[in-house]
Amino acid sequence: MTSHIPLQQIWPTEFVQKYTQAGYWEGQCFGDLLAQRAQDYADQLAVIGPQEQWSYAQLNQKASLVAAGLQQLGLKQGARVLVQLPNIPEFISVVFGLFRAGMIPIYALPAHRITELAHFADQAPADAYIGVDHFDGFDYVQQAQTLHSRCPQLQHVILVGEAGPFISLEQLMHQGQGITVPDNVSHATDVAFLQISGGSTGLSKLIPRTHNDYIYTLRESARICGVNAQSRFLAALPIAHNFPMSSPGFLGTLYAGGCVVLSSTPEPEACFALIEKHRVSFTSLVPPLLLMWLEYAPHSRYDISSLQTIQVGGAKLIPEVAKRVTPTLGVQLQQVFGMAEGLVNYTRLHDDAYLVTHTQGRPISPDDEIRIVDDNDQPVAPGQAGHLLTRGPYTIRAYHNNPSANARSFTADGFYRTGDIVQLTEQGYLIVQGRANDHINRAGEKISAEEIEDHLLAHPAVFDAAVVSVPDDYLGERSCAFIIPKSDHAKPRALDIKRWIRQRGLADFKVPDQVIFVDKFDITAAGKISRKQLRAQLSQLLQNYH
Ligand code: J2J
């Protein structure tokens, strides 16, 4: 049975001392955290799902059963477990079960498909997969079978619901009955889980976050956002995303003793009904969903007066839309600019209207270091836009198992190259101007142009392909694939191209929204140009065209 040495994220000793002495890292682990909350808030509601409501004591007990069941299967501390669950209460009992057993969840999105899952399972490498039987019309049992046969390292598959040939979560917990899991198996400097990067170049990378650094962000996020034991958080976005997970998200809410209300969809009608029913106090959205909520609100028959704050992040919110939030929804807006790699910025609840509508906030920590540099890594003049580099008590120093990405993404002195172009205001607030690298931010889902191009080039009728971002009124950005067919006779249709991407086992959001066939790339610059320049040229062409 595989036994892994617990993973660690390495900060140089001087930084470990600094962050510990400053009180950021308290030495607490997730396994203990829930046990503590279960003592303090035993009968208070922790999670509300479509059918069930669990108190802290119940959640804690379920997490223990999951932990014991996993150990009974033979999985050891340090085992890596690919978790692909929608917004259901079991998401929370499973991840806390893994934490309690000292195992490491890898958070896949429900939208991920076989190719992405196999990549995560190989890259980790993962020892087990925990999923659901069906969700949103998709058969995850069949997908789990394919994954299991494709990735021999996955020794166990556990599914919520009808597990088919696999073990169900219910059975697993049953097997855990009567078995005591030792407390405190992890160390706070261990990696608690692997988060998935949006992926700017090629395939998604795995982001190792430690107990110490992540719990620090939860504690501070809860404080900054005024989240306490009376708060009720509506999880409308998929909770495997870092934003609804931790800023302050469902984990920050549980950190504070509040209650998490899970919605299986972010659509306004369903969410408004939940807000009314459970007296939800805050939620987090990406800008396109906010637009939907703004359009729906005047026609709504629900009472959402309990809602105090809507946080918006994941992609740029334009001031014109930001200004509509309070008058239309009667709530306070909070902008959040964060990344799964670490750095999170918030506008503060007492900030003036201008800061809230025009900036993306300021960092959580006094020790978040911000550098804004030009293309040669030289600091730009104050107030000018440039590349955002950052280092701090909860920003990673390296991706998991990926030396080439690490060489590209971090400076020699440990700053993370975010890929974002930002401006820093005199008050220390960041304004996001755009992206330096080629990913498409489609309604908050990040798509790597390179990853999609590689799949398009594998199509037998495609000679060359370039994927670019196009501004979109609703999505913020949409994706457009420019394709040079191999021959005019065998020219595929746009539909074939879209189907091809789906058949390659990729998430639906990666399917190009638009496909344009061209005879050649009209390269005006002399000599060979980089793909980056080509994409920029095509993108410009599209904008002029519209
Ligand atoms: C513009 N771009 C933004 C914003 C993220 C909180 C909130 C969001 C994320 C997230 C997160 C943006 N305006 N307000 O993890 O904890 C873009 C930037 C950034 C990238 C990170 C959190 N908020 N972005 O979105 O890892 O380009 O995290 O580098 O998914 O989203 O994406 P991700």
Looking at the chains present, what oligomeric state does this protein adopt? Answer: single chain
Instruction: Report strand order across the widest sheet.
Output: 2-1-13-12-14-15-16-17-18
Cα distance spanning the termini = 58 Å
State the domain count.
2
Helix content: 25-40%
CATH architecture of the largest domain: 3-Layer(aba) Sandwich
The CATH topology of the largest domain is Rossmann fold
Major β-sheet annotation: 9 strands, mixed
Question: Tell me, what is the CATH class of the largest domain?
Answer: Alpha Beta
Radius of gyration: 23 Å
Domain AMP-binding enzyme C-terminal: 451-528
Protein name: (2,3-dihydroxybenzoyl)adenylate synthase
Domain AMP-dependent synthetase/ligase: 35-400
Organism: Paenalcaligenes hermetiae
Task: Tell me what the structure shows.
With 546 residues, the protein is α/β, with parallel strands linked by helices. It has 2 domains: 13-420, Rossmann fold; 440-545, ANL, C-terminal domain (GMP Synthetase, Chain A, domain 3), CATH 3.30.300. The chain has 19 helices and 27 strands. A 9-stranded mixed beta sheet has the order 2-1-13-12-14-15-16-17-18, with helices on both faces. The protein has a 5-stranded parallel beta sheet with strand order 4-3-5-8-9, sandwiched between helices. A 4-stranded antiparallel beta sheet has the order 19-20-21-22, with no helix packed on it. Helix 18 (494-503) links the parallel strand 26 and strand 27 (514-517). The radius of gyration is 23 Å and the shape is globular. The model has no long low-confidence stretch (mean pLDDT 94). The structure holds ligand J2J. Ligand J2J is lined by residues 198, 242-243, 246-247, 313-316, 335-340, 344, 360, 418, 420, 432, 435, 441, 444, 446.
